[in-house]
Amino acid sequence: MWPCSSLLGGRVSPSSKRPIPLFGGDLPAEVVPTMAGLLLGRHLRDLRGEEKLGVVGKAVNASASKISRLERADSPPDLRDIRDLALHFGVPDQERLMLMALAQRAREPEWFERKFSDCAMHWMRRLIGLEAECAVLMTFEAFIVPGLIQTAEYSEQIIHDGLEEGERTPEAIRLRTELRKERQERFFGQGLPPMANFLLDESILYRQVGDDAVMRGQIQKLLDLTGDPRISIRIVPLAGKVVSNNASMTHLTFDQFGLPPMVYVEGNDSADYHTQVRDVERFVTLLLRLSKNSALSREATVELLKKTLKRYS
């Protein structure tokens, strides 16, 4: 079992002042569009300092809400707005070029938007754009196996059951399953994949998804993954000492470009992204408590998975 500090990149709280590098006019290919938008927004927020949103908006002929959306990366940046903001803040030429380059990259489509635009839930787009770029990922799931470690058959059944009857076409199921598979390949197929820690509520093992063959294949995959040194899978038992009010939480940490840690909390048909230090600390503390005080050890998890596998044989 990994130490808790290594699971979370060695820290609970994000650093409040991590400098964003000045890339000049050429961004590295590793700065994907989602990351570019977040870096741009964070830099704009730092430049604004104590200046009110309304004051900045008025100076560049934009609403306060538009400036706020830019800072949160909630909408694609308008290049003219970024140019005007750079002039307003009086940034040097090199910094202005960086802001414009980030804005241009943020406007580009993510890898999944070309083929899977219609089947990627809008609230998951930021997560999908960033998960393969993180250094460490830690997830707690209460109801189903996380998408990154699902088998194709388990995914198909989950997707089938989650679609409305009129949307439940073979093509819709195929595309969504293919998207999930490509997410897995991008995450685990890198030369040095992120460290990944999955905390799974024990009820997931008994919640029937598809027939016994589907469950057997999924449990076997979990067993196989426990042998990967960069993956930790541990079961949070029903009799655990810590209970989470959140059914699905994912904590991402990054080791490049100054991107701060992020927590993704998913609901039924929406999700919240948290980057503020206080919010991140709150969720990470809960994840640490689940990991340290409730989750079974790797060895006990393997034994439980083997026992559960017999249930579906």
From TrEMBL:
Membrane spanning residue stretches: none
InterPro entries recorded: Cro/C1-type_HTH (IPR001387), DUF5753 (IPR043917)
Domain of life: Bacteria
Domain DUF5753: 125-307
Protein name: Helix-turn-helix domain-containing protein
Species annotation: Streptomyces misionensis
